[in-house]
Automatic annotation (TrEMBL):
Residues 161-231 form the Siroheme biosynthesis protein Met8 C-terminal domain. Its EC number is 1.3.1.76. Residues 227-238 have a biased composition (Basic and acidic residues). The keyword Cell membrane does not apply. GO terms for molecular function: ferrochelatase activity; precorrin-2 dehydrogenase activity. This is precorrin-2 dehydrogenase. It catalyses: precorrin-2 + NAD(+) = sirohydrochlorin + NADH + 2 H(+). Keywords: Membrane, NAD, Oxidoreductase, Porphyrin biosynthesis, Transmembrane, Transmembrane helix. It is an enzyme of class 1 (oxidoreductase). One of its GO terms (biological process) is siroheme biosynthetic process. Residues 133-158 form the Siroheme synthase central domain. It comes from Cristinia sonorae. The chain crosses the membrane at residues 257-277.
């Protein structure tokens, strides 16, 4: 049964923000700022860092030494001029009043801003993240309990299959090859492409998807896409485990994928049990 509309409140819209080649201003250079720097560098953005050198965290210093995408200013925030040509602002300083002042300037210029430790001054939140190559999973508590978000993240991370990030990367390459072979947007061809990719992901184990290379992808497209079916990995010269029979594009979740799904659900259930269990006194 779908949830009641009355329950649709108190949350946020979780988005994967595209920051490639954008400019992000980070005010502060301490422990929290070092985490912000890492997140922004992963997104392939440029960083302008404003912070006195006396308070830089060792990780912040490391990023300054190793990355050519950071422009560093050894000083305090100077005023509105620091916001020129900036696409996003992240503050991570102990001065609450200065943080709120920067937030107000950003709001005037309609620049999205995150103010560390002051949720009402945030246009968006940083959650606890799992990263494995292109795979990213974020757990957000809307700024209410970062520690619980971290506990839940660890539980989910334990339930994820090995090589999940590699599998995501290889599936992305396969999808691009399929689009090249069968170009076009929307329509019946687009629907068929989507159904076939879904069936491949359901029918193949994570390990087998992660083991795909260019030759195997071409064979999968030749023997699968072109013949409107999903071959087993061993049928195209791959495969580390026994798989079920060849599936048609309308096939449902295969037996090989069920243990993965069950394991993931079990991990979530274990998290809920831990968080909801009565506290011992």
């Amino acid at each position: 049964m779908p949830p009641s509309v009355a329950t649709f409140s108190g949350g946020s819209v979780l988005l994967a923000w595209q920051l490639k080649d954008k400019t992000v201003l980070i005010v502060g250079g301490g422990d929290v700022a070092s985490g912000r720097i890492e997140s922004v560098l992963v997104a392939d953005a440029f960083i302008t860092l404003v912070a006195p050198s006396t308070g830089l965290h060792p990780l912040t210093r490391k990023y300054l030494t190793e990355s050519d995408r950071i422009t560093y200013h050894d000083r305090m925030f100077a005023g509105p001029q620091d916001l020129d040509n900036v696409d996003m602002v992240l503050t991570a300083i102990d001065d609450v009043e200065k943080s709120r002042e920067i937030c107000a300037m950003c709001r005037e210029r309609r620049i999205p801003v995150n103010v560390a430790d002051i949720p009402p001054s945030c246009d968006f939140y940083f959650g606890s993240q799992i990263r494995s190559g292109p795979l990213q999973i974020m757990i957000s508590t809307n700024g209410q309990s970062p520690k619980l978000a971290n506990i839940i993240r660890r539980k989910i991370e334990e339930a994820l299959p090995e090589h999940a990030g590699e599998a995501v990367e290889k599936v992305g390459e396969l999808r691009n090859k399929l689009r090249t072979r069968a170009p076009g947007v929307g329509g019946e061809l687009g629907k068929r492409r989507m159904r076939w990719m879904v069936d491949v992901c359901n029918a193949w184990d994570i390990e087998d998807l992660a083991a795909l290379d260019g030759d195997l992808m071409n064979r999968l497209l030749d023997d699968g896409w072109e013949k409107n079916k999903v071959p087993k990995p061993e049928d195209i010269g791959s495969g580390k485990r026994r798989h079920s029979a060849v599936l048609s594009p309308s096939s449902s979740l295969s037996g090989s994928a069920l243990p993965l799904a069950i394991g993931f659900i079990a991990g979530i259930a274990a998290t809920a049990a831990i968080l909801l269990a009565p506290t011992r006194r």
